[in-house]
Amino acid sequence: MSPSEAPAPGHFNPPSPTTWRRERLLHIGSSSTMSSALPPNNEGQQHVADEPSEISLPTSIVGETTSLRQPDRQSSYGSIPTPKLFSRPSLNLRRSLSRVPGLQALNAKSHPSSPLHSPTTPSYSILKTQRPISAYDAPLKDDVVQGTDARINGIRVWYSSFTSIDWLHDAIKDSARFARLRRRPALRSKIRLLIDRGLGWFIVTVVGFLTACVAFLVVRSEQWLFDLKEGYCGSGWYKSKRICCPSSGSNSARSPSPVRIVEVCSDWRSWSEALGQTGTKGEMVDYLSWNVIALVLAGTACALTLLFTKSTTFTTRKESGVLKPEFANPQTPADPSLAPKRKIMYYAAGSGVPEIKTILSGFVIHGFLGGRVLFTKAVGLSMAVASGLSLGKEGPFVHIGSCIGNILTISTAKRREILSAACAAGVAVAFGAPIGGTLFSLEEVSYFFPPKVMWRSFFCAMVAAITLKMLDPFGTGKIVLFQVTYDKDWQAYELVPFVLLGVLGGVYGAYFSKLNYRWGKYVRNRTWMIRHPLLEVLMITLVTTILCLLNPFTKLGGPDLVLQLFSECPAEYDPNQTLGLCLADRGSATQAWQLSKLLLMALFVKGALTVVTFGLKVPCGIFIPSLGVGACAGRILGVWIQLWQHQNGYKQACGKEGDCVIPGLYAMVGAAATLSGVTRTTVSLAVIMFELTDTLTYAVPVMLAVLVAKTVADALEPKGIYELVIDLNQLPFLDAKHEYLWGDLQINDVTSQDVESINLDESNTIMSLRDKLLALNVSGNEDSGFPILRKDVNEAGSRMVGYIGASELEHALSIVADADADREVRFQAHYTHDLAASSMSSLLDGHHRSRTDDDPFDFSFYMDQAPLTISSNSPMELLHQFFVKLGARYVVITDSEGLYEGVIDKKTWLAFLSHLEEKKS
Questions:
Q1: How far is 393 from 219, CA to CA, in rounded Å?
Q2: 851 φ, ψ to 5°?
Q3: pTM
Q4: pLDDT at 171 (0 to 100)
Q5: Which residue spans traverse the membrane (predicted)?
Q6: What is the DSSP-derived secondary structure letter of residue 495?
């Protein structure tokens, strides 16, 4: 597109590329002028005539010293301040910038730190061919019947990464859009209304179907790659051992029995056989091939994660244009080491559940749910699990489902609902539990779960489960490998060992979470591992393969191990085939001890390896390793109780078979207790276990163990593994379930009264507003904005007129960047044109008026004229509910007379809560 053909920039245009906006802002107040006030062409080339000249910024921006300029300031994900900022032991002074140390620096007018470096687009980036990015309030270009159902309350242009979402604005916008659709009388409009109502159901159907398809491919790939370490199928190289040898002993899922049956499969060839080696040389070949292939798989998964999902490679037109080094004064360059730096994320690493919790709570992470991450997550997950690392693929299915839901969702209003439904689908394909998946989305992931979202989540999970059932990934007719069925009831005296398993699961979950958090914080992030993540992955993979090959149970894959531990021993079997988990003589203490030693070794190896594995720069989950550890403990306890039963004359009371105790049941209860201790889930986990066993017979044992495990774990460590990962990564997550003790704290103790503001009684020029915007961004407060004030004629204070966000001000300034830098802009309290009573969506959707009639120097379009306000003498709990229940992005504080006192934005509130928890601990 040539410059002459490009549309003129306007208030309602979609976001222009970040570089273009930055160049225009740079020219404000400079002697050079841009040859065109047009956005770049489709290839992203800017039409500028001159390089930006030197810019003289206010001395306060480049020369002032603040507490944020600490060389040892830890990096974060651009979210909330690190707890180190809160160092003062008491909160005694009131009505200052803030009684909380660190909030003073957080809300100061200006900071000397050099601006953050925006990421650049790599050569392999596919962003040049991505779908068009429109503004959140972009026009739909329809004829609209205007109404007066909602008043204009400011336009939101876009959200940058790691900024909070204005849920109130989105709710009003969606309500106005739906009301407009209902007002249209034509038949076509009624059809569009039906389509709009059914669009959400159609999307969740497609999400459930595609999530199951991706899960099928991941499962089949992981099976084949895992068996590739051992050999290959002679009848088809693409077949896994399970498919090549369907009746092969412990790998048979059609008759899951922990009894080892030694059979020879002529179609399966080990690497020693393929190379013609036997004896000691053959064993060495098999050992080396296992290790080498495991290292290759883990290294490839890590390399894909590091190469394709690095956070600095995800750039969109919605990022801020002032977070660039060009805005630093060239005559007084700031030390880059003192600048607040955003910690690098690898979006495909880990399970993704903590980040999805953060997104659903109301924060933006551009690229985290994109197509590139979906591809890397699926491919890397198959390789990482197949390498034998102590991790699982079930948790990352939640991330995979969310990626699919985000890609298919166009409407911002529906994205929150679709993501909740996609999380339910992810758990449904992971455990074959659609009901449990719906409850997991409600209990653990979702922040907003009204009845409509619950129905759609349930439907999406059902579609995913049905699709996976039809695809039959394991060739057994079951959705998950470790789905089992028991045919015996439990006895009353067994409640005691079930409680004991709950205690053990809670203790393990609490200390596993503590150790994993400390490993990540003090070892991984403070040693050479943070600079060489690939080397860390290879080292841990090598240690894992060496340790796991020493034990027949640790050598099994995670789902295979859980399957064997859950399985019930047959009533009659050949004693010569009892080298597995079943005892030839169920009253033999010697056999029980031999089996217990192997299971204890597997328990400690799996538990220790999971501590250092979870958090590697590979896709990994925590569900299966936790289930495996708990199942080992439960199986050991079940074997010894069975032995006690046989030795103490209880055999006659148990019927003809003489077995009241099912060791597999104890393994299942122990697995549920351990997973509850790690993740702190309760109801959803119990339902998942019910669906795995196809019965409610064992509802009481599972519920009892889960409740005991959560109680014990909460007493030892209040936060589960997901919450600790959120804390470790400094993600801006506001926990709606946590209760705080406010004591004598008051709202004024958090309010910053010196926040940079726009005073309508002063001259607000393009240059002055640009400088205010720069000061806001370099201070790390790009998520906030500016209160718009006017002096009260009868009082000594100021009245609140409105509020404008940083992104909105940046967009407005980029439009008028070619004008005289001393030209004043206006903020009007009320609109005076013919759009005063139009709904926000009507304004943007189709009110036909020439854009040339819009006054570009009137920034009232972007002003929130009705911000949430609260009196400074209100209780702290009320302010907390504003952020939690209403999803407020900022709250304005007034005194008893209604005069402005300050603003508290969401990140400032999060920083305050973080300090409150730190002081409590």
A1: 9
A2: -70, -20
A3: 0.83
A4: 76
A5: 198-219, 287-308, 418-441, 492-512, 532-550, 598-616, 622-644
A6: H
